[in-house]
Amino acid sequence: MKRSGILNRHLSGALAELGHGDGVLVCDAGMPIPDGPRVVDLAFRAGVPSFAEVLDGLLAELVVEGATAASEVRQANAAAAGLLAERFPSLDLVPHERLKELSAGARLVVRTGEARPYANVLLRCGVFF
After folding, report:
1. What's the rounded Cα separation, in Å, for the pair 122 and 86?
2. Is the pLDDT of residue 2 over 90?
């Protein structure tokens, strides 16, 4: 049994399969999930687990070289916008419709229980060396 880190066996296994350049969409409960990527649905109740909790857990285990979010987050969800700006100083912002298009190319989707709008980010995996 793992001692720490992500304990969810489906998510832990999916993370171990990622490689350089792979996309990981971390999304709120309302984001449309495209056909194709592997999905780990962590949503339990509205707000549980939160976008921030899941994102920080993933960032503790992944090497991330870039991130993309919807530009609408700035006006619609100040908390998520602040979190993303803090975690990703070079965050790429695109219209929400474009983020949904880009999400189709993700290798993994992690759905949270977040119930506030535009709490979504597409991570691009880096390499540890």
Report:
1. 15
2. no
Task: Note if 20 is an active site residue.
Answer: yes
Q: What pLDDT sits at residue 112?
A: 98
H-type alpha helices, the chain: 9-16, 51-59, 73-76, 78-87, 96-103
The 92-94 sheet, strands edge to edge: 38-41, 108-111, 23-27, 121-125, 64-70, 92-94
Both structure tokens of 56 = 């920080």
- Check: CB of residue 37 under 8 Å from CB of residue 122: no
Active-site entry in 20, 60, 95, 98: 20
| Cis before 49? omega within 30 | yes
Determine the pLDDT at residue 45. 97
What is the pLDDT, as a whole number, of residue 1? 79
d(CA 3, CA 128): 22
Query: Can you give the pLDDT at residue 10?
Result: 97
Partnered with residue 80 across adjacent β-strands are none
